[in-house]
Amino acid sequence: MQKHNKSVRFPINLNIKSTIVTPTNRLDIPLGGKLVANKKFVYLFGNGYTEGNNSMKDLLGGKGANLAEMANLGIPVPAGFTITTEVCVLYLRDHKYPDGLLEQIDEALLKLEEANKKKFGDPDNPLLLSVRSGARVSMPGMMDTVLNLGLNDKTVKGIAKKSNNERFAYDSYRRFLTMFGDVVLGIKYAKFESILEEKKHELGVEQDTELDVASLKDLVNKFKEVIKEHTGEDFPQDPRKQLQMAIDAVFNSWNNQRAIKYRKLNGIPDEWGTAVNVQSMVFGNMGDDCGTGVAFTRDPATGEKRFFGEYLTNAQGEDVVAGIRTPQPIENLKKNMPKVYEQLEKIYKKLENHFRDMQDIEFTIQEGKLYILQTRTGKRTAAAAIKIAVDMEKEGLIDKKTAVSRIEPAQIDMLLHPMFDPDATYDVIATGLPASPGAAVGRVVFTAEDAEDKAKEGIKTILVRTETSPEDIGGMDASEGILTVRGGMTSHAAVVARGMGKPCVTGCGAISIDMEKREFTTGKVIVKEGDYISIDGSTGNVILGKVDLIPPKLTGELYTILTWADEIRSLKVRANADTPHDATVARDFGAQGIGLCRTEHMFFGEERIPAVREMIMAEDVKSRKQALEKLLPMQKEDFIGIFRAMDGFPVTIRLLDPPLHEFLPNQEELIEKIRELEMKGADKKEIDEVQRVLDRVEVLKEINPMLGHRGCRLGITYPEVYEMQVRAIIEAACELTREGLKIVPEIMIPLVSHVRELELIKQNVKTTAEATMKECGAEIDYLVGTMIELPRAAITADQIAKEAEFFSFGTNDLTQTTFGFSRDDAGKFLPLYVEKGILEDDPFAVLDQDGVGQLVKIGIEKGRSTRKNLKIGICGEHGGDPKSVKFGHEIGLNYVSCSPFRVPIARIAAAHAVIESENK
Length: 920
Fold this sequence. Notes:
Elements: E1 42-45, H1 57-72, E2 80-83, H2 85-94, H3 101-116, E3 129-134, E4 146-149, H4 155-163, H5 166-184, H6 189-203, H7 213-231, H8 239-253, H9 257-266, E5 275-280, E6 291-296, E7 308-313, H10 317-322, E8 328-329, H11 331-336, H12 338-355, E9 359-366, E10 369-377, H13 382-394, H14 400-405, H15 409-415, E11 419-420, E12 428-431, E13 433-436, E14 439-445, H16 448-456, E15 461-465, H17 473-478, E16 481-484, H18 492-500, E17 504-506, E18 512-514, E19 519-522, E20 525-528, E21 532-536, E22 541-544, E23 549-550, H19 556-568, E24 572-576, H20 580-588, E25 594-598, H21 609-617, H22 621-645, E26 650-654, H23 667-680, H24 684-700, H25 712-717, H26 719-738, E27 744-749, H27 755-776, E28 783-788, H28 791-795, H29 797-800, E29 806-809, H30 811-819, H31 830-835, H32 852-866, E30 871-874, H33 882-891, E31 895-898, H34 903-919
Parallel strand pairs: 14-15, 15-16, 16-17, 24-25, 24-31, 25-26, 26-27, 27-28, 28-29, 29-30, 30-31
Antiparallel strand pairs: 1-2, 2-5, 3-4, 3-5, 6-7, 6-9, 7-8, 9-10, 11-23, 12-22, 13-17, 14-21, 18-19, 19-20, 21-22
Helix pairs in contact: 4-5, 5-7, 6-7, 13-19, 15-34, 19-34, 20-22, 21-22, 22-26, 23-24, 26-27, 33-34
């Protein structure tokens, strides 16, 4: 019998790829930085040795902290130890383990051996281990699990003899070789899987459980040959070498491409690092009184308060998660193993009450004994998150602020995605499991890479896979929805799709994929790559072709959570709306007014564009005013509709902003039209009319129109244009006031850079407004303010505030003029700027707080130094971005304004800003 010698330590300089830290995966943290080496690197849990708790997630990772917490609660957790996240950071920085780590691992192994009455590496009574990663937050894109570590050609015989189950021993060995080869040595999982499938085909069996001992031994030998072929070395027989290689692999996995992509998608800092959890193995594959499963304390798709999950008998944990076999619903466990189910039921209730949130639990049953391998806050759909938060508040588990804080703004966005039109007719070609609700339509692609490539071209896709793996995360994010042949409701595809808010159908065994032909079949239907399909993640239906989609509405629990958010937040939320319909939608979504009504959008109607062009073509003021008289009733009609929808709430109306040439036909189109008319021998008068328009286009053409004759410059050059708009605004307000409505117009002058511009236009606005009110016989309280969208305006805001009664920061143009980026052209290089870390985010999507944000801050401070109670908001699309909303709260904005469908997002984000500031 091999004796354990405490002085035997891990080899440090193993000549294997898994221990090499290259510059591409090195974590660069300066030696003089905040990180301070902690002398204790290993924390025990289970069997009376627990040293951590749930408050230590930063150090132990989420998985390690929760394992320790469960052990403290007396829940049956297999004993193990956690190597801290700090070790990961030091290892990736220094290319080596910190001093003292290996001795601490040796001491921890001794404790595990004592707890299990087994020896690690003992050929007769071996201790086997599992090795898992565990960052502070759950990361499905991280390293996969390695189970059954410690098996080799000798210990497998000891396991067989000790368990009196040779089949179980070799089944565990072939699983270990597959996982170790894939996760630690970097050999593609498909290589092992194809050999396994060949063996099943050879024997005429369908399930792994039907393989006999001889077949499993043959697979073990073939898998070792694969490892030798791909690495040039024999599979390592030394269990301690296996363990160090696995630990190295976990640390190096922090910087693999899929983990980097996941962190980028979810805003997780690179410097966090991951912990390593080493745990005593328990076995769900020893026979029919064994099993493994994943369960949720509430339904992760709907939020319903019911125990939800799946399990497999005679299987190991990865079988459920990977979707290798289609599992049974957890309700069947109650029939098959009633005592185990009863114990599991008590544990899940205890865990949910303790953590006060829905839990995702992994468990294994070994010979009728239940073990809990993990608990974590369960991923859930947006709808489920909202229902769970509201229900838990009603149950007294959490308060309203906690409920609101648990709803991410992005989850609200997910709920605003379209669903199938209930009146649409369509033929269902296949049905799978409804893994993640919502509907999606797109062209079929079969690889994650293709989904990402098509997304860059603006093509919507449905990713169709046999099953997904963490490598597919980029394509899953790029696609509209996911469809898989295999896997259950807790498979990788289901969990990741729910977290992303993507519609997903799993376990759709009726379809068969042919990768060579790039098509899938179901019955007699053949669907080729590029064909349109529609999927319904709420029903599991797969439909050939496109199905019409409709937007959802805010009801039920979502209305409740948004109402609670409104009680918490101080920042008001308005909407950008240019039509009565948009204004009505905005109010339905809870907008507290309109922060930006772009009047130019009203000019593009089919009936209006001729009058607009007549105004532009006019060669004198009289002709221009005649054309504007035609536009006046149209503008007034629009304002009446918008004011009516916003009864009692302020409406900020921006006077005409874009350069006039935008309302005229394209120059090239006019030249082509003249050519066609001449070729047809058209009447000279007709040709001359088109030529006149072309001449006007050429006169108005500018080299850089975004910095040219637009905004207040138009109002100064052509004051009659703004006069018509002000008359329309005031006439509409007067008419509705007489009906008993409360109208609050705010007239906004765009693109002001100098106070004298605003002073001149404001005088004309007031003169026109006063005259109009006198004609209408009514008095309207209105404000005149300006859009701060140029750096000079922000810097001289104290002067501008002498005239402006409110500021609205136009952060789209302010970003453009601060960076010197053309927002129409910046898309060619901005993604690369973000990818290379030059910019953290696209500044047109997320407000640049260090540059543009500082100009906003200066503008607020200077503006209020002149006019103490100056009302200030932002009206770019940044008003719906959660980070920008939080910044707006911090710097003292009165409101943000965004597109109607982002109003609920801004409401939640504004509440989060208050909660976070209170928790600092």
